[in-house]
Amino acid sequence: MAAGTAAGETGAGPDPDELLALYDIAPGDLERVRRCGESLLQRLDEHIDAFYAWLERQPFFGDFFADPETLGRVKDLQDGYWRVFFSGRVDDGYLLSRRTIGATHARIGLPPQAYLSAMNTIENIFADAMAKAGREPTELAEGLRSVGKLLRLDTTVIIEEFMRITGEIIGQQSKALMEMSTPVTAIWQDILMLPIVGLIDSQRSMDIMNAMLTKIAETRSRVIILDISGVGVVDTGVANHLIKITKATKLMGCECTISGVSPAIAQTIVELGIDVGDIKTNATLRDALEDAFRTTGIDLRRSD
Amino acid sequence: MSEAAGVRIAISDEGGLKRAILETSRLCDELDFRSDLKSRATTSVSELARNILKYAGRGEIRLRRIGESQRPGVEVTASDRGPGIESLERALEDHYSSSGTLGLGLPGVRRMMDDFAIESTPGAGTRVCAVLWR
Amino acid sequence: METDVPRVPIQLTHGCLIASIQLELDEEILAQFRRELLARIQADAPTGVILDLSGVELMDVEDFEALRGCAAMARVMGTRSIVVGLQPGVVSALVDLDVDTEGIEAKLDLEEAFRALQPEPAPPEAVPADDRGDGASPNSEGSGDEP
After folding, report:
1. Residue of chain C whose Cα is closest to the Cα of A246
2. Would residue C126 count as lying in a domain?
3. Sheet strands side by side (includes A280-282)
4. B98·C100 Cβ contact <8 A
């Protein structure tokens, strides 16, 4: 499986030659695509109109194409798309144009079914047109096969980019959610608290670090309590992040205490052989708070 | 999902790592694992998945329920076609490092799980199989 | 020996030596600084040394190690060092680079550093007579602008 076609690649994108090989598209196929294009492009307007006649009848039409200006623009883009398609040249620029479409679909939230059924429809329109053009049966069959292969290559590129951008968007949304739900709070003078919830990955860990350091600088706090009672898993990766965080707060002159260490997590920490060293930890938030008050010189009395 | 076949999670990014943890958690819940045992299982899966990402870039984690209904267990198989481990002996020793990088985590996984087996061929890949009984 | 090497300013305030590090610490400047710092420690017998890094925007592992070295040498001469003013961005980068923070003491600002370097104060007096006993007696230090 060609590594270059991994959907997660940013920047460079899939490699044209690898893709062509994967879809068994030889220079002969591309030549056949060009020849089919000669007749199809002459009546491209008609074919596109036929496609839109189908599109108007679809349930998702209203959601995405109702506005006449949008519709006009999309029709123009369609026209361009097919001209490029039938030029039979699959290079980086070609793939980039396809990826751009995928990205657009992702941003507007066009469902895959809409796009895939549309491709199916236009393929049938072209097939009918080619059959009517009265080509010799073998030539027709081979032409259709080649066009079909290239269509499927296009579909792949577009859908993979669609998925990649959709994933990014979801990631950004959950990041935003996370930031909203894990604020660094000044719970007392000089004392900050940050509850951490869920599974920590490297992105979140960076976000947590930045939020803390910024807040420490802003509030000139002397103690920060990191409550991890809501954290799902503490493995060596997470422990590394936590160690880094405590190092960083130390360098800013702020003492960091980790609270909310459950018995289960305490066990795994020891079993993993993680050296907690001189990081302050507490089982409960309450203990951590008491420590924090002591450190900042606050004396609490119950009023009698 | 057929119980014998289990679940296969592709590990090629942190999303995969999270999915692996969540699936492990789900399986442990299905089998009524105590919270500390569940924690061991999820932490082990997390460790193994991280190793895959860090050293091989991609690989897979397979989770399977094994054993009898009276004594069920969770079997975790982590495999990759990465560079492999040169010295298994050293990898299975504990590393104490002042700089905060905590090594492969394998000795920890071995401690946390009941059964543990590892094979690795430099240049070809690594496979870890571990079981935790309820 | 007079040289044209730019100097890190070191001044004696409240019995502490404060070094304001704002320059790029290349080998020469660092060597000069180290020499001067140790000489001043010997001459002035300060209660402590404060390394003010608030003017530093960029720092790498080498720079950090160099400062750690200075602190260690000061300690050998019986003097405690405290780092103040590290910017969040600099801290973030240093931590990513996995620096060893052993032997480094840091405080938020000069005020905190002074307080830390002063000899231990006498134990606090008993509760003031007019304490209303309604809970916390907030720390009288600090900016006092918390919500």
Report:
1. C95
2. no
3. A185-188, A191-198, A223-231, A255-259, A280-282
4. yes
